[in-house]
Write a structure and sequence with these properties.
Strand content: 25-35%
CATH class of the largest domain: Alpha Beta
Structural class: alpha/beta
Helix content: 25-40%
CATH architecture of the largest domain: 3-Layer(aba) Sandwich
Largest sheet: 8 strands, mixed
Number of strands: 14
Shape: globular
Strand order of the largest sheet: 2-3-4-1-5-10-6-9
Length: about 300
């Protein structure tokens, strides 16, 4: 059976999203203590409908904010986990509101990417959408975000991401106080966690480049239930540019992104707003991987 571990920050301020979602987890699933603690909080666990074990770790701050401190626990206790996820809030300038989001982890500018399982990300997005609908959250959307790591903004060393072999993911709700404090949104997120590892057939694995943080073309193509498309990573235009992927090490960064997708990449997709040099990098990557390269409009057609 599989294993997932979920992190909940118990800190002050907007960390209440993590605290409140954990309260929902306790009420819904009655996880049992395992007999050991992190930051003074007992680690708890339960099983999902398919027999997978889910462990819940409460921490003093976000794991991504102090990744070096929590990395030993990840490596020693959960190196064999199928998934490690952080529950948190979403915010930002011009961020969409009433969203439930999930995204893979990586530092795009430096070209360091955590392991990714497209089927797991798709499971989360579908479950977030389903539970939001079942709980009557009108106007809420479940959307994938671009690949990123908030630790980069808090002094973290992106190279440390490569020291943990399992998939890392963030699951969030946002993007305003009204959204953060919505109890039904908190419940939708909590219920979705235990469906992340549900079995599903292998999908068509995509590596996407370009576009914006919540790129509509990638989101629509990869959440269409009539299609079997799954996002490996999404590298948005702003970080491809700031990471200078046109430089000599650009191909190696793309190779690293592709190599981190469990089961490999089946197609490279680029947004047509990308500059010509980046489009060529995508074509070259497709040639190295021997996979097709699609324009973002072609993603909808397959």
């Amino acid at each position: 059976m599989g294993e997932a571990v979920w992190f909940f920050s118990m800190g002050e301020g907007v960390h209440h999203v993590s605290r409140d979602v954990y309260t929902r987890v306790e009420a819904l699933f009655s996880p049992e203590p395992e007999g050991w603690s992190v930051d003074g909080y007992p680690v708890t666990r339960c099983r999902d409908a398919w027999g997978h074990t889910h462990r819940f770790l409460r921490t003093r701050t976000l794991v991504s904010y102090d990744y070096a401190a929590y990395l030993p626990v990840l490596r020693e206790r959960f190196a064999g986990a199928d998934l490690a996820g952080e529950v948190t809030w979403h915010a930002g300038d011009n961020a969409p509101d009433r969203v439930l989001t999930a995204h893979t982890i990586g530092d795009v500018p430096s070209g360091v990417f955590c392991s990714s399982r497209p089927e797991v990300l798709r499971n989360l997005l579908e479950s977030l959408e389903d539970h939001a609908a079942a709980l009557g959250l009108e106007g809420w959307r479940a959307l994938p975000e671009a690949t990123h790591w908030s630790g980069s903004c808090h002094g973290g060393n992106p190279a440390d991401l490569s020291r943990y072999p399992s998939m890392l993911v963030d699951v969030e709700l946002g993007s305003t106080p009204d959204a953060w404090e919505n109890p039904r949104a908190q419940e939708a997120l909590a219920r979705s966690l235990l469906e992340a590892l549900r079995p599903r057939p292998r999908m068509v694995h995509l590596l996407c480049l370009g576009g914006v943080h919540f790129e509509p073309s990638f989101a629509e193509g990869a959440t269409d239930r009539s299609r079997d498309l799954g996002l490996g990573h999404v590298l948005p235009n702003q970080w491809v540019v700031s990471g200078r992927y046109e430089d000599e090490d650009g191909p190696a960064k793309l190779d690293a992104a592709a190599a981190s997708v469990q089961g490999g990449v089946d197609a490279v997709v680029y947004h047509e707003g990308l500059k010509g040099c980046y489009r060529q990098l995508c074509r070259d990557l497709g040639a190295r991987l021997a996979v097709p390269v699609w324009k973002h409009r072609g993603m909808r057609k397959g």
